[in-house]
Write a structure and sequence with these properties.
5 helices, alpha+beta, 12 strands, ten-stranded mixed beta sheet
């Protein structure tokens, strides 16, 4: 009798374990789809992740080859590329309406910044994402289903975001400059500027906003001054887009002022160089004209002397 009871108990435990494993395996697939669809909707550009794997014992989520495309009109094929990232999550919370994320760690992501006119590709993505409009159909990684009115979907509470050694490249005059590595970014208790619950769209935008602010804060001497001046204005506008950048914007105004000031100084210096060059050129032209005039005068005088010897009565 006891043996039969134990067999029933063991069978029930096995069934429960299989069911739990199935739930989390299914959650991994759902998360992959959620990341791709959510990122594409949030940013307006194609977002893809090659693999999402979930650890039952460690409560960790792994991301392999996460990529964010470049907006239309910019040259490069990507804005953001990540080889590997990790997410420490409360596994039980994945089954509730709000997932609790203890930490998101992105290791050495590659960010390629371009400027078109007076706007960077990074800000273009953040600004287009404000409207929450989906990307073009050609860029959709998966078929999207409309949610019933009032359904907000899963929300997230993020305790820590860590972006380790972000590598920033800049495209100038059609060529990509060598990447520079900025200091690690660490943010805690991530939230939206208006205090609303965070959805997966907001996570993508907060990551890119933090990178933009870090470029302005730490990019002096590493990134072009003109680019920093542009980005300083863009970062100042992040609050209007509903974004809250923590811990990286304390010296923003000072850095922005220096960046803009340096850009203006460079412009003045270049204008001065052009003026000096024009002045030198004008002087050279005047000098050469004087020499030509003197040569012409000498030639005329010699011609007169020659004519005196040829014409009768002329001495």
């Amino acid at each position: 009798m006891k043996r039969k009871v134990w067999m029933i108990v063991i069978a029930l435990v096995v069934v429960v374990l299989v069911a739990v494993a199935g739930v989390f395996l299914f959650s991994g697939r759902l998360l992959k789809t959620g990341i791709e669809v959510g990122g594409t909707q949030a940013l307006g550009v194609k977002t893809s992740v090659q693999k999402v794997h979930l650890s039952l014992l460690g409560g960790e989520l792994g991301l392999d080859r996460l990529a964010i495309g470049n907006p239309e009109g910019f040259e490069s094929d990507h804005l953001f590329a990540l080889g590997h990232g990790g997410v420490k999550v409360d596994l039980v919370s994945l089954l509730s309406s709000q997932a609790v994320i203890h930490e998101i760690e992105l290791v050495a992501p590659d960010i390629l910044i371009e400027q078109k006119g007076l706007q960077t590709n990074l800000f273009t993505v953040l600004k287009s994402g404000k409207s929450k409009e989906p990307a073009a159909k050609a860029q959709e990684p998966a078929k999207q289903e409309k949610k019933p009115a009032g359904e907000k979907g899963k929300t997230f509470r993020i305790e820590k975001l860590r972006i380790a050694d972000p590598k920033i490249s800049v495209r100038l005059l059609g060529k990509v400059q060598p990447a520079v590595t900025l200091p690690t970014i660490e943010l805690t208790n991530i939230s939206n500027a208006d205090g609303s619950p965070m959805v997966i769209d907001d996570i993508f935008r907060q990551v890119l906003a933090a990178i933009a602010a870090s470029c302005v804060k730490n990019g002096q001497g590493l990134l072009p001054d003109e680019l920093l001046g542009t980005m300083a204005g863009e970062v100042a506008a992040l609050k209007d887009l509903g974004l809250k950048v923590l811990d990286v914007g304390g010296e923003l105004a000072e850095k922005a002022g220096k960046a803009v000031g340096q850009a203006a100084k460079s412009a003045v210096e270049e204008a001065g160089k052009v003026g000096e060059a024009a002045k030198d050129a004008a002087k050279s032209i005047t000098d050469e004209a004087g020499k030509v005039g003197e040569a012409a005068k000498s030639t005329v005088e010699k011609g007169k002397d020659a004519l005196k010897g040829l014409l009768p009565g002329r001495k």
